[in-house]
């Protein structure tokens, strides 16, 4: 009979770690997470809001994992119950938000990229998500933009301009996914969720964008975590099997 190891949690990024980017989780991964949860506490931390995370991981996501941290943990659920929220609007105020949004929309309007769609800025509880192409693009357009961005560095150049222009707001810019980047106050990256995990002495984090500037970097690099870089959902399963399940199978 599998017994959970006390004081240990496995914490997972969503896109590129549990699912292919913006795709729905596979039955294989769901089954694996169910097995893993029998031996360790399991949590999810994503930059997206709970609606988008639910679209990828299922409508019962807050019950399927012990912890679900949406928007980097600015909206936090434990055992299916909301345990904390933080608001960007309250923190920054409407005047500063308006100044940032106006400048960003003007910048995007002047961008000469192959196509533009809609929803260039998505306002979330704890962050702004900025997309030069617009979040309403199709999956095919999303894939094409990702290739274009890797060549022309549209997002990284835009982040450099915004970081300099709004240095007084002490914002963090985090490039993630295929088409966008997140903007939030310093300290509101994925390490924000760690404040809810004080009962754990061993926190393993798995993510694919663990490099400097990636949206998994801060939590991967944190002194509070043991960071693991993964290359795909399949790699996540392999690494977790070796770390947590192989030992279980061997027994004492």
From TrEMBL:
- Give the protein name, as stated in the record: Phosphomannomutase
Task: Extract the GO molecular function terms from the UniProt entry.
Answer: metal ion binding; phosphomannomutase activity
UniProt keywords (A-Z) are: Cytoplasm, Isomerase, Magnesium, Metal-binding
Task: Indicate yes or no for the key word Magnesium.
Answer: yes
Q: Which one GO biological process term can you cite for this protein?
A: mannose metabolic process
Q: Does the keyword Isomerase apply?
A: yes
Where is this protein chiefly located?
A: cytoplasm
This protein's GO CC annotations: cytosol
CDD domains on file: HAD_PMM
Give the similarity note: Belongs to the eukaryotic PMM family.
UniProt catalytic activity:
alpha-D-mannose 1-phosphate = D-mannose 6-phosphate
Detail which positions bind Mg(2+): 13, 15, 208, 220, 225
Q: Which domain of life is it from?
A: Eukaryota
Q: Which organism is it from?
A: Liquidambar formosana
Q: Where in the cell is it found?
A: Cytoplasm
Q: Pfam families recorded for this chain?
A: PMM
Residue positions binding alpha-D-mannose 1-phosphate: 22, 124, 135, 142, 180, 182
Q: Which cofactor does it need?
A: Mg(2+)
EC identifiers of the protein: 5.4.2.8
Pathway the protein acts in: Nucleotide-sugar biosynthesis; GDP-alpha-D-mannose biosynthesis; alpha-D-mannose 1-phosphate from D-fructose 6-phosphate: step 2/2
User: What role is this protein assigned?
Assistant: Catalyzes the interconversion of mannose-6-phosphate to mannose-1-phosphate, the precursor for the synthesis of GDP-mannose. GDP-mannose is an essential sugar nucleotide for the synthesis of D-mannose-containing cell wall polysaccharides (galactomannans and glucomannans), glycolipids, glycoproteins and the antioxidant L-ascorbate.
């Amino acid at each position: 009979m599998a017994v959970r190891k006390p004081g240990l949690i496995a914490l997972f990024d969503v896109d590129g770690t549990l699912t292919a980017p913006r795709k729905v989780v596979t039955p294989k991964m769901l089954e694996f997470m169910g097995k893993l949860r029998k031996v360790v506490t399991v949590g999810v931390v994503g930059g997206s809001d709970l609606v988008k995370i639910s679209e990828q991981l299922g409508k019962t996501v807050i019950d399927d994992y012990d912890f679900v941290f949406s928007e980097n943990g600015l909206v936090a659920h434990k055992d299916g119950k909301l345990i904390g929220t933080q608001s960007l609007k309250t923190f920054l105020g409407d005047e500063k938000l308006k100044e940032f949004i106006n400048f960003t929309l003007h910048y995007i309007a002047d961008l000469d990229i192959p196509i533009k769609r809609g929803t260039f800025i998505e306002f979330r509880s704890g962050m702004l998500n900025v997309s030069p192409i617009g979040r309403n693009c199709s999956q095919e357009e999303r894939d094409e933009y990702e290739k274009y961005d890797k060549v022309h560095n549209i997002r990284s150049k835009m982040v450099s301009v915004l970081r300099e222009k709004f240095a007084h707001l002490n914002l963090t810019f985090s490039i993630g996914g295929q088409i966008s980047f997140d903007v939030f106050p310093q300290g509101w990256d994925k390490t924000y969720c760690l404040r809810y995990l004080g009962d754990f002495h061993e926190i393993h984090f798995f993510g694919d964008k663990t490099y400097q500037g990636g949206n998994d970097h801060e939590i991967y690099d944190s002194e509070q975590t043991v960071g693991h870089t993964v290359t795909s959902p399949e790699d996540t399963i392999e690494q977790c099997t070796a770390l947590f399940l192989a030992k279980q199978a061997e027994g004492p």
